[in-house]
Amino acid sequence: MDRARDFERQGFLVLPGFVPPAACDALRTRADELVAEFQPETVSIFTTHDQTRTSDEYFLSSGDAIRFFFEEDAFRPDGSLRQEKALSINKIGHALHDLDPLFDRFSRTQELAKLASELGLKQPLLLQSMYIFKQPHIGGEVNCHQDATFLYTEPSTCLGFWFALEDATLENGCLWALPGGHTLGLKKRFVRAEGGGTAFQVLDPTPLPEEGMVPLEVEKGTLVVLHGLLPHRSGANTSSKSRHAYSVHLIDGTAHYPEDNWLRRAPSLPLRGFGPYV
């Protein structure tokens, strides 16, 4: 398999058995521990339907922190949780790969460094990470999008590593991707607005096509690699089974990272590549 050729052609790769089951389980256990330790003072809800709703300070300052975001349907009208906290979190983001030792080691392996180089990153830097729960019954859909909208560089270098920590199926909200869709160009950018908050900067008003998308049903331990310009989405989880996943996004250190990007980091936590584990 010529991974670079296949990636260039279709904009994604599906690599079964990339991560041993024990490593998946260890990450799940650690995520459960982090959620158990989390005492919510600020409630932030993650939704891709109305991105400005997440544009609070808790979200905007999460680029160099470990923050917890609730599912949109986790709350009753009076603001109380419908179920226990552990079954209400949408995701943890966005610097697990730098601030938690276990996630750090998982994210920085020789295999991943080799793959990033193979796919064209000259100076790979790990920009953000997310632990995604896709909770049973309430795991929300993620609308069709391009990762480079949120992780923009000039030229575009965003690369996503998405690890299935459980089997991902049509029933529990697997990924869908548009083969070859990465050639369509970037449609918009998610930026910090001048007056505060965030805004979408439209680069091309043509909507992302969803016709022709294929489901990526994958087994636990599979790595899905996503081109930053690839249109992809995931369905809602209406099943009784969760769909835990972990994703890391990389950019090339040789590219320009604009100051109006939403994700910022303090100088005390600069972006790092794959050391010291490789």
UniProtKB/TrEMBL annotation:
A Pfam family matched in the record: PhyH
Alphabetical list of InterPro entries matching this protein: Phytyl_CoA_dOase-like (IPR008775)
UniProt entry tagged with the keyword Metal-binding: yes
SUPFAM superfamilies, alphabetized: Clavaminate synthase-like
First and last residue of the signal peptide: none
Molecular function as annotated in GO: dioxygenase activity
Gene3D superfamilies: q2cbj1_9rhob like domain
Keywords: Dioxygenase, Iron, Metal-binding, Oxidoreductase
Protein's UniProt name: Phytanoyl-CoA dioxygenase family protein
